[in-house]
Amino acid sequence: MKKGEKMINKKMETALNEQINKEIYSAYLYMSMSAHTTHIGLTGFANWFMVQYQEEMEHAMKIYKYLQDQGSKVHLKEIEAPPSSFKDLMDMFQQTLKHEQFITKSIHDLVNLAMKENDYATQIFLQWFVTEQIEEEANDNEIIGKLKLVGDKGNGIFMIDRQLGERTFHSN
Ligand SMILES: [Fe+2]
Ligand SMILES: [Fe+2]
After folding, report:
1. Staple 53 to which of 30, 81, 133, 144, CB 3.0 to 4.6 Å?
2. 80 CA distance to ligand 1 centroid (A)?
């Protein structure tokens, strides 16, 4: 590729840079939730959110690398501060689900743009994210379902905490 020659257009480049920011914000949000659950003594929940943090940073890095592979410039922008106090566990997972639904919409908007711009490479690149979002929302819904079953306190929470403590990060 000649120097300065871009394989993806400016619109797509800007939108992908914005997505890097959203993924790092996601990581920051889950890091904050991990800090909060550590603070209230739920180390399993804290572990789950920290794995989530690692996944989100990996999502950001995938886009970072993709832009560079395409000869585009990475522009890092300011990351908004996440909330640092939460009502209860249900509130945290409902916020998590709501945030993931927002990210899913954002990924779908990127796919639409890539289609509009006839950017086949970016369409294929984004397929992984489309599939990943299905799993993200399913995971959140599963935990919300469990929290509904046990209520927000008591022994059930400790059982869920132990289970979430077993989650480990796997690079994708
Ligand atoms: Fe993500
Ligand atoms: Fe996510």
Report:
1. 30
2. 16
